[in-house]
Design goal:
Layout (H helix, E strand, L loop, with lengths): L1 H54 L2 H12 L3 H33 L4 H15 L3 H6 L3 H22 L6 H17 L2 H7 L7 H5 L2 H18 L1 H9 L2 H37 L3 H38 L6 H8 L2 H17 L4 H26 L1 H22 L6 H4 L3 H22 L4 H22 L1 H17 L1
Main location: membrane
Pfam families: Polysacc_synt
Organism: Limosilactobacillus mucosae (Lactobacillus mucosae)
Length: 478
């Protein structure tokens, strides 16, 4: 029951994440312009790297450890204090280095860099991992929802033109920082907060650092491509890539929400040595991930030609091709994240996880240097897709003798065919309406969902059984 509640909370929040950008992205892209948005994307990518170095691989490590010891109050207190204060120490060091960088290399966008320092502070005091490890998603979801809505209101009130990049950065930084502070009253009700001895904190450096190594690689093909674009190309191309990246990563949050709910549950199963049930849960989760990710990918490709002009403005027409290329990462990234998080991280198989991420990082770096000078933002998009694909291939190879890989591909051809049929319908609707408008996009999405759900219930046994049980339950309550 807890898993279902957490999934509902998390999915509801992910839907909010999808809905809010429908308002903010077209508004901000028009007000700031491609150049202004590119400046924010470039500076934010840099500060995110400092935030990453300021927390190492603590989040995934902390979630797993809390899930391991959540039934033992003494060990839970110890785990929280060691992890939190170690995180705070690392973030403080990263913040100091960041200020040195800003004062020596970042004077062109000095004030933007300075206000974004709050994002590093926010990373240092982030305690969301405690609640995720305890499988209490409600508090995180409520906090994030309030912060997102307040941020949206402030953006609409104060961001009015191309000179408001600083205001935009300030709003996002302050709301994120405030959101972290709101969680601490709950923390004091769950654990006894005490500053541990430095020697105790140092003990977790190695396992945390092992978690950090793949995080560096992930940054290379998720954030560094924007930096490469900013250096090798124009800020306008960076802006085009950024909005394309946002669309695909907003879509991928839906299947990833399933994985994030199951990660602490499966980690807890492994801590109890219940491997058989854990592997069964992994197979079920991957099936759900495929069920969701295929139509999302096809839906983006089918809608982009008519959605982009009204969503971002006519100045963003090059985004249509870029986002169509990047849509495939919804499928690829969802699949690889399920294997990586639910098995390799949950089982602490860090070497295999690192090898996969390292392979993807190498492809990303090579692809960026070769393709960006020739294809610009499109080159960066191809680099991301190739990097994500390499990660998936290596992960499948790493687990081939440990997990029932064949079962991962059960029904995958059905998901593809149903999604392709949905794509044909969605694209045809666009041709019939023959105009870029919110009405066209709404019709495409609504009819696309109906078509896909109908076909899936007919073709997929477990989905049909679930639908029947759901309707019987609803009928019994009427």
């Amino acid at each position: 029951m807890r898993v279902i509640k957490n999934f509902i909370y998390n999915t509801g929040y992910q839907l909010l994440i999808i809905i809010l950008p429908i308002i903010t992205i077209p508004y901000v892209s028009r007000k700031l312009g491609a150049n202004g948005l590119g400046i924010y994307s470039f500076t934010n990518a840099i500060v995110q790297n400092f935030a990453l170095f300021g927390t190492l691989g603590i989040t995934n490590y902390a979630i797993r450890q809390v899930a391991y010891f959540r039934d033992d109050p003494k060990k839970l207190n110890y785990t929280f204090n060691i992890v939190f204060f170690f995180q705070l120490l690392l973030a403080s060091c990263s913040l100091l280095i960041y200020f040195i960088f800003v004062l020596t290399k970042g004077r062109q966008y000095l004030y933007i860099y300075l206000i974004q320092a709050l994002m590093i502070v926010s990373a240092g005091i982030d305690v969301s991992w405690l609640f995720i490890g305890l499988e209490d998603f409600k508090k995180n979801v409520v906090r994030n929802t309030v912060v997102k809505i307040i941020g949206l209101i402030l953006i609409l009130l104060f961001v009015k033109g191309k000179k408001d990049v600083f205001l935009y950065a300030m709003i996002l930084s302050i709301t994120q920082f405030t959101g972290q502070l709101l969680m601490f009253p709950y923390v004091y009700n769950l654990v006894d907060v005490k500053i541990p001895h430095l020697k105790e904190m140092v003990k977790i450096f190695l396992p945390v650092f092992l978690m950090f190594i793949p995080q560096i690689g992930i940054q290379v093909y998720t954030v560094m491509n924007k930096i490469f674009l900013g250096i090798l190309d124009t800020k306008v191309q960076t802006g085009y890539f950024d909005v394309s990246d946002k669309i695909s990563r907003i879509a991928v949050t839906i299947p990833l929400s399933v994985i994030s709910v199951m990660y602490p549950r499966i980690s807890n199963l492994y801590s109890k040595n219940d491997e058989i049930f854990a592997k069964e849960e992994i197979v079920k989760t991957i099936q759900i991930v495929h069920l969701v990710s295929f139509p999302l990918c096809m839906g983006i490709v089918g809608c982009s030609k008519w959605m982009i002009p009204w969503f971002f403005g006519k100045g963003y027409l090059p985004v249509i091709k870029i986002v169509s290329i990047m849509a495939s990462i919804v499928i690829i990234m969802s699949f690889s994240t399920a294997i990586g998080d639910l098995y390799l991280l949950a089982k602490n198989h860090m070497k295999a996880y690192i090898r996969a991420i390292f392979a993807g990082s190498c492809i990303s770096v090579i692809g960026n240097f070769l393709l960006i000078p020739i294809l610009h933002a499109i080159g960066a998009a191809y680099s991301v897709v190739l990097a994500e694909l390499m990660v998936l291939i290596v992960m499948l190879y790493e687990v081939k003798n440990e997990l029932p890989i064949i079962k991962f591909f059960n029904n995958i051809y059905i998901y593809f065919l149903n999604s392709f049929m949905m794509f044909i319908v969605v694209y045809t609707i666009g041709l019939v309406f023959n105009t870029s408008s919110i009405l066209t996009t709404f019709a495409q999405i609504l009819i696309g969902i109906i078509i896909y759900v109908f076909l899936t219930i007919i073709d997929v046994t477990w989905a049909r059984d679930y639908a029947i049980r759901f309707f019987i339950k609803i009928k019994s309550r009427i």
